[in-house]
Automatic annotation (TrEMBL):
Region of interest (Disordered), residue spans: 1-23
Composition bias, Polar residues: 1-10
Organism: Paraphaeosphaeria sporulosa
Chain ranges of the Guanylate kinase-like domain: 12-197
One record GO biological process: GDP biosynthetic process
Keywords (A to Z) from UniProt: ATP-binding, Kinase, Nucleotide-binding, Transferase
NCBIfam families on file: guanyl_kin (TIGR03263)
Gene Ontology cellular-component annotations: cytosol
Designated name of the protein: Guanylate kinase
Amino acid sequence: MAPTNTSAISSHRPIVISGPSGSGKSTMLKRLFDEYPGKFGFSVSHTTRSPRAGEQNGRDYNFVTKEEFLDLVEKKGFVEHAQFGGNHYGTSIKAVEDIAEKGQVCILDIEMEGVKQVANHPSFPKPRFLFLSPPSKEVLEQRLRGRGTDKEEAIVKRLKQAEAEMDFANSPEAPHEKIIVNDDLEKAYKEVKEFIVGADA
Ligand code: ADP
Ligand code: 5GP
């Protein structure tokens, strides 16, 4: 992996949130950013997947072509990158450095291969890893379908990948400090906030 400007990004430990697609990561982060404006910086990933309704380029993701993505891989522009559901996703060095320059706490929302790369990265500051779990497979499926953003084929891929994410989170190699089950939204959000902001949140 490419080196990062650690002197610029080591003042706050980054937070890495992971968990199956549909477990509620975006929902939690949106609430957190609304409640603490300016405190956190969302690491805007690059992806080759198409934007969903309501997603904005540069805010939710940097939407790029496969060629653009692979070009940045070639230039060693990523802290980590992986494939998910047939698309490429990656955290660029620039995304995390931009957040550090603003003095914000960097938050990454990434899948498990990216989690492993970040956990083993030679120069990226040691993050705190949080895993958000759905209450059950059945509820996850209902929520993914209820979100209404993905085609059937994408939902099937996400449900299959969810099993791998859950197995990894429960394995000894997982770097997660905490697993939060997102059953009741208020309860789970309170736990997420406590983990990220502190017990006095
Ligand atoms: P992710 O970012 O992990 O893919 P989302 O935040 O998009 O997941 O959540 C998936 C769907 O589940 C969304 O429609 C969201 O509104 C819904 N959701 C999230 N948390 C809860 C909860 N605790 N109870 C019911 N629905 C939830
Ligand atoms: P979605 O398509 O639902 O936005 O994201 C699919 C999966 O890709 C989620 O698990 C999300 O956490 C993950 N993801 C988003 N950005 C990145 C990234 O930059 N790197 C990696 N490894 N995974 C990412």
